[in-house]
User: What shape does this take?
Amino acid sequence: MSKKFLTGALRFQDLKRLRHTRFMPIFLSLLAVFFVSLDLTSSAQRAPQQSAATTSAARNAALIAATAEVLKETSEIRQLSILRPVQSSAQSRPEIERTLIKNLDEDMTATQAHASEVTLRKLGLAPDDFQYRALMIRLLTEQVAGYYDPKMQQFHLADWIDLDGQKPIMAHELTHALQDQHFNLRRFEHWPKGDSDAELAAHALIEGDATLAMALYIANNPLRPLAFLKSLGSTRLPSEELDKAPRALRETLLFPYQDGEKWVFILYKQGGWDRVSKAFTELPQSTEQILHPEKYFAHEPPVRVTLPDIAPLLDRSSSSEIRGRRSEVGQDLRTPRPPAWKRLDSDVNGEWGFYLILDQFLKSPAESRRAAEGWGGDRFALYEGPRGEAMLVSLSVWDTESDAREFFDAYVKRTELRYPDARSIEPAVNAQSPLFSKSFLTSQGVVSMDVRGARVLVLEGVPLGKDVKGLKATLWR
Assistant: This one.
């Protein structure tokens, strides 16, 4: 995550909104140590008290020297030359917290945060009282250990971790500095709206590259893993906020580091660091390409899917709704009303997003991954009604008709698990009906799924009284 950080219908791009300032969360930094498990006592208990002579100025001087040392070694490991020195400083927890909150407020509007919350709740990926911004502030301030800021071209380290232990984190952050000098990380700051899946894939390249470089830095000296873990105090790192976070957010936070490192390592094995560097001009286009590197090498692009805005159709009340309101208020409701439904968001789920949506309820990673494979492209739209009703529309394209049917079957199963009160509704059959169709009446509206060839249409949360058939006809055009 960073000054922007997290995909698709899950609306994790708001987590990715932290991406501009690249930072290394403490628990993710352990990936580069390969989750070494050591029973260490708190460094606060074992380390002697610093003398009064160890001033802030002395610490900064030591940090400047360590930066030059680690930058030189990281440059050699990553095979990217140093084009200019990198400024560094130590920051206290309050200073880092202020920076994170400032960046979050600059890059995420209240409307965007609301859209994220509504989508996550609608898909059952977060509880009804979930508050996105508050959680992200708590989570990031709990986990942050350091960050690199491309705008200022400098990096900052947590002053509560000893300097020797910081060096692996420094290697990660200084890899970002080298990336910035050679590939210009600021070009990723203004990603085109509505393609969060591709943005997450690019983020996996950036963080996977830095994580692999950090792993190689640690491997250069067998004492570094021990020093690093000792500096953190113990392997029992703070994780209360992380543990409480919705699973989809936790796993997408991890994705750029863990899956990104695996993907970058495959590039590295194929053609060394030159091949990794080439990826900054031939960016991965989807999380599918990260999960299946062969699709990246084959230059298999995602299919671009479009959806019409159906807010005007949702604003058309059924005759029964009109009669009901007329009798309630005793007036003629034929006069035009202002639009009540609005489209809050439109984005791409991607293979990773669909995997998370399915497995939240299937709880079978192998089954969910299998159903999400074969993804070719998608788009979703989130709508909100006048009384806070939420409705999702998703149109996806799959590699084959068999892949589409497999996803359809998995989504039907997910729906039955997502809504225990779901009652199956027999769809109307005619010559234009999809080959496979399934609808449910739930306490949160109608959920309907159709398959036509290699495409799957999902409507989730259609309020009673709305013309489901008419909505589908518009969306299938």
Notes: The CA atoms of residues 1 and 19 lie 5 Å apart. Residues 1-24, 26-53, 318-333 have pLDDT under 50 and may be disordered. The longest helix spans residues 247-278.
